[in-house]
Amino acid sequence: MMAQRDDGTGFKIFRNKFSDSNSLVNNWIFAINEDAITKCMDSTPPGVCFLQYCSDKFYSAYYTPSGGGQRKNIVSVIRDINGIAR
Fold first, then answer.
1. β-strand 47-52 against 72-73: which pairing, if any?
2. Domain boundary assignment for the chain
3. Is residue 38 within 8 Å of 53, Cβ to Cβ?
4. Per-position pLDDT tens, the chain of length 86
């Protein structure tokens, strides 16, 4: 599966490109979600990534555990009552 977006004039297709760190993290997508502030989030096996609409670039979502340690991938996203992803 790959991600596609209709911009009104045609479809933009997003795929993982091994040499491009701003491409889709993985071509296997579990879920696509958009929050109230128009962040598109794709859930893939390695974790969640965000699409920046203005540049069509993806960024992986990470967190650092409290108390320090190695950063970890965010693997799921929920929305609050206002539609904001957390």
1. unpaired
2. 3-73
3. yes
4. 556 666 678 787 888 888 998 888 888 887 777 766 656 666 777 788 888 877 888 888 888 888 888 888 877 777 767 766 65
pTM: 0.64
Distance of CA 27 to the CA centre of its chain: 12
Say which residue the tokens 């929305």 belong to.
79
Place of tokens 């539609």: 83
The residues facing 58 across adjacent strands are 51
Look-up of token digits 């993290």: 25
Residue 47: beta bridge partners? 44
Tell which residue, 57, 58, 36, 39, has the closest CA to residue 47: 58
